[in-house]
Amino acid sequence: MKRIFYSLALCLSVLVSFSSCEQQAADVQVTMTVHPDLKQQNDFYLSNKSPLQPVHFIKLPLGSIQPKGWILKLMELQKNGLSGHLGEISAWLEKDNNAWLSEGGDHGWEEVPYWLRGYSDMAFIFDDPEMKEEAMVWINGILNSQQESGWFGPEARAANGHLDYWSNMIVLFTLQNYYEYTDDERIIDFMTKYFRFEMTVPDEAFLSSYWQNSRGGDNLYSVYWLYNRTGDAFLLELAEKIHRNTADWTQKSSLPNWHNVNIAQCFREPATWFMQSGDSAHYHASYNVHDLIRRTFGQVPGGMFGSDENARLGYIDPRQGTETCGFAEQMTSDGIMMRITGDPLWADNCEDVLFNSFTAAFTSDMKSLRYITCPNGVTADAENHHPGIDNRGPFLTMNPFSSRCCQHNHGHALPYYLQNLVMATNDNGLAAIMYNSNVTTAKVGDGTEVILNQETNYPYEEDIRFSLTMEQNVAFPLYLRIPGWCENASLQLNGNSVNVYAKAGAYIKIDREWADGDQLSLNLPMNLSSRIWKVNQNSVSVNYGPLTFSLKIDEEYKKISSVESAIGDSKWQKEADPEEWPAYTIDPQSPWNYGLILDPDNLEASLKIIRKGWPADDYPFSLENTPIEIQAKGRRIPSWKIDQYGLVDVQPRYPVQTSEPMEDITLVPMGAARLRISAFPFLKQ
């Protein structure tokens, strides 16, 4: 078996190059590292057993991280909004004759698992008795559905007559988090029995149809989760079988298919298999897929790529979009890739998708969502935009009943993001991977439990403040990620400046004996930057730190019938009142066809940051509440109009000519804008 040591070598080379910048004293050592330590194994949280390759970070059990600030607000909105109430309104979640609760049931095969993995995590994070009771109805139903053979759940079959394993893969993610929260040993026995069943299935009947074949990496990930708890050797044999029968995501210049959710979800399969193979080609294959789709279809802001169902040749403009499912699955994959690789790139991408794309897919109350969200999109109507949009139907409408995959699947994105904010490290330490207000409780060092409290309005402010609570002093390393966009980050420990060169795209490692009441402050200076999208007519987007900005377009919301505007496969429960769950169209009430006047060599001369007060309700993702805007200059481009498909037309040919007068325009964060122009025609100053 090949094993790779390049991550460790990179780490050592960075430590040597930064040695002159280290601050060393009797009680503290501060260094920079590209990857955390791989030489040890955490004493308190399970990581990879031999012969699996060690991972760089370890997920803390569900419930270890409690949300505060704006992530708490978003999760409360989700709890009180569509995801938290789908059990009452979605026909697919109706309990009578449900395929997950009744033998021979006729509905809910995919929808229940999609919804449950987010709902159950929310129930346990909030420790909500009613939600936990509801979640346990489904979890117990799943456990009780297991047959003597080991199979569980509905016996859905693909068109070829073979069993379809896809929905069971989703269920296993739910059960893993449930086990980590409860230590319910039924889960270990249940999964072992199921995986023994999978071992009996002939290759030709295993993962034999499109969706399950694409997404076999989810099955693989769960096998390793169980192996790390039981050490059963047959699981490694099963892992090889799963990889062998999963679509080939290691191709260098093509992909097994071009479906946006498949790509966002499945690109990590080779890196997951790398943990067993030890072959660096598998490790790098996941990076290749991530880059490959973005080289052509991802030359746009927002962290994703144009694949409004499927990526298609010729449809690469920023007016193409991504499913809300795609955003959610990309964020989940980023978290898994962070653990496997330790590469801050994945945290950067997760934040990019959340801050700039995911939040714009919902109404501000999170009671309605749309199927497709685009970097450039100036209408959210109820019309069919095919072939401009790949799918036929009203896929831009904010509708709680429509597009049942996203309707049920979106709910896991925020709980999973929360669980990836802070991770355990192999050297019995902690790592702040992504920044948001939270309280993390974990064992470190010699087993002492510490509470790491994080306070920040990041990405709307530059400072992240940490405080530690513990009953006794304890020595352990704390890692702080420096985002790839950040230069000149600085650190203070108990009010004193720490002398360390904080390299972008790496980690500060603070190794010391910590005491109750210790305080740490990380400053991540945000600067204006721009990105030119050469493939898309040299269009330009504007960033401030991790935030990308869109033209501020006046939005007119119109309430419409969620029944009449839903797509054909939408269903809801008989008792559900559509009046309580309306759909919305959003129309522009101000001009949108501006080119941006910019001096890329002197952005401060072209753009002015305007800071506003933090919203009282902790919700910054709306035009009314955004705490930051940018004043800019632009000219209208009369030839840039709505095209024959009812969409914003593709970028005008560069260089763009317009004789319209210069105007003051306002830019807002992409995540606050439901109508958006975030890739602008570039006009030189």
Highlighted features:
685 residues, 8-stranded mixed beta sheet, 7-stranded mixed beta sheet, 28 strands, 31% helix, disordered N terminus
Figure out the total of helices. 18
Global Rg:
25 Å
Share of residues in strands: 15-25%
What's the helical proportion of residues?
25-40%
Unreliable segments of 5+ consecutive residues: 1-26
Please identify the structural class as seen in this structure: alpha+beta
Q: Using the alpha-carbon principal axes, give the shape.
A: globular
Structure description:
There is one protein chain. The model is unreliable at 1-26 (pLDDT under 50). The chain is globular and about 75 Å long. With 685 residues, the protein is α+β, with helices and mostly antiparallel strands. Helix 14 (324-341) runs parallel beside helix 17. Strands 18, 19, 20, 23, 24, 25, 26 and 28 form an eight-stranded mixed β-sheet that branches. Strands 1-2-16-13-9-8-3 form a seven-stranded mixed β-sheet. A seven-stranded antiparallel β-sheet has the order 4-10-11-12-17-14-15. The chain has 18 helices and 28 strands.
Write a brief caption for the model.
This protein is α+β, with helices and mostly antiparallel strands and 685 residues long.
